[in-house]
Specification:
The structure is a single chain. With 490 residues, this protein is α+β, with helices and mostly antiparallel strands. The strands form 3 sheets. The protein has a 4-stranded antiparallel sheet with strand order 2-5-7-8. The two termini are 34 Å apart. It has one domain: Outer membrane efflux proteins (OEP), CATH 1.20.1600. It is built from 12 helices and 8 strands.
């Protein structure tokens, strides 16, 4: 039962993780693709210059207080419904430990009855002697010396019993408490694994929002440059130094920049809603680079950091529980010994002349043959042990593969960030040189527009790379089971 609970929670969290990853990837890649596919529609020469930009929409979509990533993780750990459900499953498993300890606890029962019968019975020795005398024609002598009639069953009788049974030895109590505790620990670790995955989703969404904020800044800068180009083109057109196509090109770039801002505003609102659902209240991230989390360095593979993940630890405990259950099957033939104390009350005094009595019993139960159920259970538990061993091996292999992939992705993201930042710096210098050449009249407006586009693309790529590095660091921390430790260390 514990394994199925862990698997169902793992399947649910894995599906949620894939959805968040797909959404963050879509958000981070959408600006570049939209920029590459934006139509070059010509705006009219008299288009109003004071159109309301989407920047106001971006600002209006922000709601909730600003929190650091560590605080967002802590809020999610306290308020997430998924984590609460996983903890409830762990509580169910913890209850099984108390059920196992019940094998050593006493069993106390009290019963009572009131019986009305139409056929009461009693023992009358005087009547018996009289009958014998009549048979043998012997007159009875001194009947007063005989005892009065003894009631056996009265018309209205009352019965009560109090019984206490204390196990002295039982195979269940000797061998099943350890497996129950191991199963409870496996379920608790499974709940922590579910929490780890939820925290990873929070980190991905939070860091993805920071990346979108950087993209918005790049789009705002592109809009400002496009508005400047449009203003210069109008001025040149008025004095006859440029043709109308220059103004049309500048207005097209302005429209593209504003379309980028509108698209990023929608993506930001979507991620904010998802972050609110994961955290449990509306929050917004701090600016990029101010997450307040120290991810630490990359560990060596020889240290086997994936062994510290909750999934591997949970599978290890589940394997230990299966081993303990099989050990009980091998010793289930042992006898059970119990001490029984029994108190009785009978309103009919009977031959004893007492209404109360007690019995002390030492009971020994030897399971000789139970229709083969014990042997069938042993075969089932052997199969469950093999299944738990396979799941443990699979969990270790998957955890190692996840850690290796996370480390490789982090190294690749860091290399991509270095290249993207270099490209952004180069594109910025190239834009300045082209602007200087444009003022000198040695380059065309088309070359100037191309330089602006390249700088925006380079700045967007650098922003995406920075966000990707942070996300990869969070994934590596989760692959080492360290995200929850960040919350606990607060």
């Amino acid at each position: 039962m514990k394994t199925s609970v862990i698997d169902s929670r793992g399947a649910h969290v894995a599906t949620h993780t894939r959805r968040v990853s797909l959404l963050v990837a879509t958000v981070m890649l959408a600006p570049l693709s939209a920029s590459a596919q934006a139509p070059a529609a010509a705006a009219p020469s008299q288009a109003p210059e004071s159109a309301v930009p989407p920047v106001a929409v971006v600002e209006a979509s922000a709601r909730g207080r600003q929190v650091a990533l560590k605080e967002a993780l802590a809020l999610s750990a306290k308020q997430s419904p998924d984590i609460a459900a996983a903890r409830a499953q762990a509580e169910l498993a913890r209850a099984s430990v108390g059920r196992a300890w019940a094998a050593w606890k006493p069993d106390i029962t009290a019963t009572g009855q009131i019986v009305h019968t139409s056929a009461p019975s009693s023992l009358d020795l005087g009547q018996f002697v009289g009958l014998v005398g009549q048979v043998y024609q012997i007159p009875p002598q001194n009947l007063g010396a005989l005892p009065p009639p003894v009631p056996i069953v009265g018309v209205n009788s009352r019965y009560a019993t109090l019984q206490i049974s204390q196990p002295l030895f039982t195979p269940q109590g000797a061998f099943l408490i350890g497996p129950a505790q191991a199963g409870s620990e496996a379920a608790a670790l499974g709940a922590q694994e579910a929490r780890e995955q939820v925290l990873l989703n929070v980190a991905r969404t939070y860091l993805g929002l920071q990346g979108v904020e950087q993209l918005i800044e790049a789009a705002r800068e592109a809009e400002a440059v496009a508005l400047k180009r449009e203003k210069d083109a109008r001025a040149q057109l008025e004095v006859g130094m440029a043709v109308e196509v220059s103004l049309l090109r500048a207005q097209t770039e302005t429209a593209q920049a504003r379309a980028q801002l509108a698209q990023l505003a929608g993506q930001r609102a979507q991620l904010l809603a998802m972050l609110e659902a994961l955290v449990g209240e509306p929050v917004t991230p701090l600016p990029a680079g101010a997450s307040g989390v120290e991810w630490g360095g990359v560990k060596d593979e020889q240290a086997q950091p994936w062994e510290q993940t909750y999934s591997v630890r949970s599978a290890t405990k589940a394997f230990e529980a299966a081993e303990g259950v099989l050990r009980y099957d091998r010793f289930a033939w042992l006898p059970s010994v119990a001490a029984v104390g029994k108190g009785n009350y009978n309103s009919n005094t009977g031959f004893s002349g007492q209404t109360t009595s007690y019995d002390l019993i030492l009971a020994v139960t030897v399971p000789l043959y139970d229709r083969g159920l014990r042997y069938a259970a042993k075969r089932e538990d052997e199969a469950k042990l093999a299944q738990a061993k396979a799941q443990l091996d699979g969990s270790r292999a998957k955890a190692r593969a996840t850690w290796v992939a996370a480390r490789a992705n982090l190294e690749a993201a860091q290399a991509a960030l270095t290249q993207a930042e270099a490209q952004a710096q180069l594109a910025a210098r190239a834009q300045k040189q082209v602007e200087a050449s444009a003022r000198a009249g040695v380059v065309t407006n088309l070359e100037l527009s191309d330089a602006d586009s390249r700088r925006f693309l380079a700045a967007s790529a650098a922003a995406q790379s920075r966000a990707a590095v942070d996300i990869r660091r969070a994934e590596l921390a989760a692959a080492e089971g360290q995200l929850a430790a960040l919350v606990q260390a607060e």
